[in-house]
Specification:
By secondary structure, the chain is of the alpha/beta class. The protein contains 20 helices and 17 strands. Strands 12-17-16-15-13-14 form a 6-stranded mixed beta sheet, with helices on both faces. A 5-stranded parallel beta sheet has the order 4-3-2-1-11. A 3-stranded parallel beta sheet has the order 5-7-10. α1 crosses α14, α6 packs antiparallel against α15 and α12 packs across α13. The chain is globular and about 80 Å long.
Amino acid sequence: MRRSVSPRRSWARRALVAVVPVTLVLTVAPTNSSGVPTAAGSAATASYPTDHAGRTLIHNTGQAYLNPRLPVRHRVEDLLRRMTLEEKVGQMTQAERAAVTDNPSLITSLRLGSLLSGGGSVPTPNTPQAWADMVDRFQSYALQTRLQIPILYGVDAVHGHANLLGATVFPHNIGLGSTWDPRLVERIAHVVAEETRATGPQWNFAPCVCVARDTRWGRTYESFSEHPGLVTRYASSIEGFQGKHLRELDNPDRVLASAKHYAGDGDTEFGSAAGDYTIDQGVTVTNRRDFARIDLAPYVPSVRRYDVGTVMPSFSSVDWTEDGIGNPIKMHANRELITGVLKGKLGFDGFVISDWEGIHQLPGDWPAQVRTGVNAGIDMFMEPNSSPAFVTTLLEEVRAGRVSQARIDDAVRRILTKKFQLGLFERPYTDRTHLAEVGSAEHRALAREAVAKSQVLLKNSGGLLPLKKNAKVYVAGRNADDIGNQAGGWTLSWQGASGRDRLPGNTILEGIRQVAPDARITYSSDGSAPTAGSDVAVVAVGETPYAEGFGDVGGPSWAYDPEDAGVPREAKSLDLQPGDKAVVDKVCGAVAKCVVLVVSGRPQVIPPAQLAKIDALVASWLPGSQGEGVADVLFGKRPFTGKLSHTWPRSADQEPINIGDRNYNPLYPFGWGLRTRHR
């Protein structure tokens, strides 16, 4: 079972945790003989009908909120008038599936509004059918509440529905950004939405529209670009998830999207993070004008043009230089930016969902953290394993007058609106129309196209690439035949893991053999096999998987996945690991022509002496499940067309380095990318 936390950092997020049995301190509503809660002071709720599978059905006896012919706003107001305070607070609460799996009646008794799967939090078996069955089981318990309000189920399908074994795993955002093709990314988002909703979840915590300004950040690969203008173009992915019009949101191939992480998470200063992270969840030190120009910019079209349904605040803080440095405000507490700017100035009418236990980082005791988050403008709270305590505390805060009823009603109104727009009151259970298309050949073909278009050709001495399809090719490097490494983090688990056969798809080596069947291939991960007779070498090096602060340069090591066997993962660096340097030197020194693929979540520093030995250098990023897309451009089946969406530094001490900086002198600039032709 995955752990969510480093022993030294109790709020590391979004992994499956070992759940300790919870003793409820919440006083729940009375129940009838069937265990169905009733509103305080009301008559017992009658038993509800069930379908052939034993799932609870919505019992429509003419309530206005169950009339699909009425406008959504009328349905919302009718339902809101019927709700008790306890029911409203429940709607504002999201728990992790592991916290309710053994006792799903907690969904009913707490009147939960939402559930989520953290990284690695999956049903057994981890199949599309089992996912749909799991979500429907939870939904059945939600419909046993007095008002039968369906739950929303959320997942981090950030590069495909990658918690699901067999889903199509696309390149991470840094690669998609390097395609410079927003239309392609919109098509990808639509496929991700289809695969996600077909298996139950109706809500995706994506896209990440952060602007990564320092590649030492462990989440750099989640960012489309360092340039706010390019990131802003990719906000169109919201249409891929939700559809072009709100009326499409209830379709079986659409999901509710979430623009994240609002705002400034990619612009934090190195060394400003608390605990053992170095930059993730740190402090953005800036003035309001630059913050609007860089960090807020992608949220303007996300809200105004694409009508994103939800927004997730960042773990980071902002420290305004106008009033002096030293008084940062956590985004989860920032009423100015959440209520004033997002909901006020930008006109955001969806709802704000906290990040994983995001309010736990706020100053003060637990009641202060709860009321600060609510009063700042957060509408739903991701409390994976502390939902009972959150419900109890928020009820107390409202009854004590420290949180207004109007603030509660505003939050619940926003949440209910999205549930109605998703069509959950008409079709609460999973529409499995597209279930057989999960991981389909068509979807994998799109992923392969994306991989090819994401490859950036940095150097190509003598026009070495594309290679001849009958060449004698020596393939080496630890990332040549490891699908876990090329998929990266957020793949089957929070941190991801190495492994050749970890998920369905093709490694880069398998792709080479598929695309160039007439080539004579010699493979040696460490370069120990004889090189004699080889025309060219292809050496795939780079990074192994990580996520969030565990990917920070100089940050903590992760050793808590079962795959790790308790052994900490390698220290994160912008420099190639010693073993990677050694295999590049060895193979490129022995074979006359040498291609190096950097499979990584950010640029890696290539020293001048080593670069001189490399004839062709490719930024392969984290391509996901379809390594044959890399082979497509190596052998000329597709041309190289990718361009850098992030500056490639000469040395680690150049960071942070971004286009527009004074004395800008990188190894390869933003927008760089050589082109080739079909062979």
